[in-house]
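FYI - complex with nicotinamide-adenine-dinucleotide, inputs then prediction.
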Amino acid sequence: MPRHDLIIVGAGTGNALIDDRFDDLDIALVSAGPFGGTCLNAGCIPSKMLAATADVADSVRAAGRHDVDAELRGVRWRDVRSRVFDRLDAFAEEGEKGRRESGNTTVYRGEARFTGPRRLTVETDDGPVPIEADRFVIAVGGRPVVPPVVADSGLPYETSDTVMRLDEVPGRLVVLGGGYIAAELAHVFHSLGSRVTVIEQADLLLAQQQDELVSRTFTDAVRDQWDLRLGRELTEVSGEPGDLRLTLDDGAELTAETLLVAVGRQPNSDRLDVAAAGVGVDDDGRVTVDGQLRTTADGVWALGDISTRVPLKHVANREAEIVAHNLLHPDEPRTMGYDAVPSAVFTRPQIAQVGLTEQEARDQGMDYAVAVHRYADVAYGWALEETEGFCKVLADRRTGRLLGGHVLGPQAATLVQPLVIGLTTGMTARDLAEQPLWIHPALTEVVENALRGLDPGAADQE
Ligand SMILES: Cc1cc2nc3c(=O)[nH]c(=O)nc-3n(C[C@H](O)[C@H](O)[C@H](O)COP(=O)(O)OP(=O)(O)OC[C@H]3O[C@@H](n4cnc5c(N)ncnc54)[C@H](O)[C@@H]3O)c2cc1C
Ligand SMILES: NC(=O)c1ccc[n+]([C@@H]2O[C@H](COP(=O)([O-])OP(=O)(O)OC[C@H]3O[C@@H](n4cnc5c(N)ncnc54)[C@H](O)[C@@H]3O)[C@@H](O)[C@H]2O)c1
C-alpha cells in the first residue's frame, strides 16, 4: 500500500495548503471533483461573475434614473456561460496539471473513504487504491441539502452545483430557500430574464444570517421583482420535467420550468466515513476540531466547510494557513479566531456584514448604541441616485468598541472592510471615525457618518 508523509483529502482549499515549505514531504492530494472545489467550480466565483453580468443588465434598465436613454436588447446567456466557465474550467484543469507536475505530490482522483485510522481507499477510475500516511488533512467540504419532498418526487431539480451551467435561462424559476444562495441566484436569473418565485420558511429573506433591518429592507426591495412566498413550506412536487407543479402548505399551487433547491448545505463527513478513522463529528455532521484545527484523531486536521462554523471561502483560506503552520511548527501552534468574520451577499441591493446583528446584541443583554446612516445622505449617494442603502453600526456603550457593522447598497462588500479592520483591531467606533481621513466625496462617507452618529455613551463620558 502506498505510504505518504501527508494526505490531504479535498482539492478545494486543501490544494491551497501546499506551498514550497512542504517541498521535502511526500504528499498525496485526493479529490473526487475538479480542482478548486466548490468556490471555483460551482460557488463563489461563477456566482459572482454571473452577478456582475446581472448588475450590468440592471444598470442598463435603470439608466433612465441618470437621464441616459438606454435599452436592454437581450442577454446572450450561452455566451455569458462560456465566458464564465471556459475560464474557470481551464483554471481548474491547470491547477490539477500543475499539482501533478510538482515533484513531491501524487494526485489521486476519486471518492475517498477511510477504512481505519490514517488509512483510506480512493475509488479511482482504475479501481480502489488504498493509501496511508502519518498525517492527514480533511478538507472535503459539503454538498447541497435536498429535502425529501423534492428528492422523493422523482422529478428533476437543480442545485447551485448545476443551475449555473444550464443551457437556457429558465422562463419560470422557483427557488426553494431564501438564504445566501437563493438570494444571489434569484438575483442573477431574474436580471437575466427569468420570472422568479422564492419559497422561504421564515417570514423574511436572509433572516437567519442578517441584521433585522437588513433582512427587512432587502425583502422589501425585492418584493416587487420576485414573487415571494414567505413563511411557507413546500408540501408536494408533481407534474413533469419542464412543467413542475409545486404545492405549498397554504394550498397554493405554483408552476415552474425549473426548481432550484437552496435550503442549506451539509458536510461530506458521511461520504468520507470519518468515523472509521476515529474522527468525531458534531450533531450536524461537521468534523469536530479544536482551536488549532486538530480533529479528535491523532495526526488528523480538518479545515473549511467540513468542519467550520462559518462556511465561507475566506474562512477556509485562513484555516488553511493555520493548518499549514501547525503542520510545520507543531511546537508553536497557532489558533484560529472567528471574532470578526465578514460576509457579503452579492445581490441587488448588495449586503455586507461583520460582527453582531442588533438582535444578537439584544439577546446577549448588551448595553449597546446603534446608528444608521443612509446613502441618500452622503454626496456620492446623491451621485448614484441611491434611495434605499444604509450603513448600520453597533458599539458597546461601556467600552466604545465596535460590535457590528451592516451595509446594504452599492459596493457594500467593499464598504464594510473598514468596519472589519475596526472590529478586528478592537478600535473604538470614535477612533475609527476620527483617526483616519475619509476620502470626500467617496461612498465610504456613509460608513464614517454612521460611526460618527453613534451616541458616545458612558465610554466617552469618563
Ligand atoms: C453557490 C455558492 C456561492 C458561494 N459564494 C461564496 C462567496 O461569495 N463567498 C464565500 O466566502 N463563500 C461562498 N461560498 C462558500 C464557499 O464556496 C465554501 O465555503 C468553500 O468553497 C469551502 O471550501 P472547502 O475547501 O472547505 O470545500 P470545497 O471547495 O467544497 O472542496 C471540497 C473538495 O473535496 C472533494 N471531496 C468531497 N468529498 C470527497 C471524498 N469523499 N473524497 C475525495 N474528495 C472529496 C470535492 O471534490 C472538493 O474538491 C459559496 C458557496 C456556494 C455553493
Ligand atoms: N456570498 C456568500 O458569501 C455566499 C453565497 C452563497 C453561499 N454561501 C455559503 O453557503 C452556505 C449555504 O447557503 P444556502 O443559501 O444554501 O443556505 P442558508 O443557510 O444561507 O439559507 C438556507 C435558507 O433556506 C431556508 N430553508 C431551509 N429549509 C427550507 C425549506 N424546507 N423550505 C423553505 N425554506 C427553507 C432557511 O430558512 C434559510 O433561509 C451559506 O451559509 C454560506 O456560508 C455564501
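The mean pLDDT is 97. Residues 77-101 form the longest helix (25 residues).
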